[in-house]
Amino acid sequence: MAYLVACNTLDEMVGNGTWTTKRPTRTELIEVFVSKSFFHSHYRRHFAKVADYPEMVAWLEGEPGSVDVDVWGVRKANYTFVDLRDWLENGGTLELDVEDEELGKRKVPKRGKGKGKEKDLEKGKGKETKRDHKKKESSKRAK
């Protein structure tokens, strides 16, 4: 919201001649608030879709009568970009379906393997690497 206000204010100031120095680029203006990459990966990606949900727009703008549980489908102390992503992917709610509650899962599309692979290896799951195999062999020989 502050970025949009800054853009509009800058446009007005340039238009009426009160901005007398070099005009900052949109990227420079974005970087006053957050990094360019974070802006594009989080703000631009999610908030462009939020415009299709007037109740979420009202909640984000702090309008009276916007209740967390009515908008999000659940009550939490804090909501994150992960929650917003899940909310958008779940059609405008974080609330679990009865079927999903029994499974204890949210209706969220599965992601790639990412960092979880390392955790699985530590727990003894997943594929054994050559290094793991060599360590086992050398410890057997030492005994």
Structural overview:
The protein is mostly helical and about 140 residues long. It has a domain at about 55-130. About 60% of the residues lie in helices and about 0% in strands. Helix 3 (about 35-50) packs parallel to helix 6 (about 80-90). The radius of gyration is 24 Å and the shape is extended. Mean pLDDT is about 80; it is low at about 100-115 and about 115-130.
Task: Please describe the structure with a list of short key phrases separated by commas or semicolons.
single chain, 143 residues, mainly alpha, 9 helices, extended
Secondary structure elements and pairings:
Layout: H1 2-16, H2 26-33, H3 36-50, H4 54-60, H5 68-72, H6 81-89, H7 98-103, H8 116-122, H9 130-142
Helix pairs in contact: 1-2, 3-6
Instruction: Point out poorly predicted stretches.
Output: 100-114, 116-128
Largest sheet: none
Radius of gyration: 24 Å
E-strand count: 0
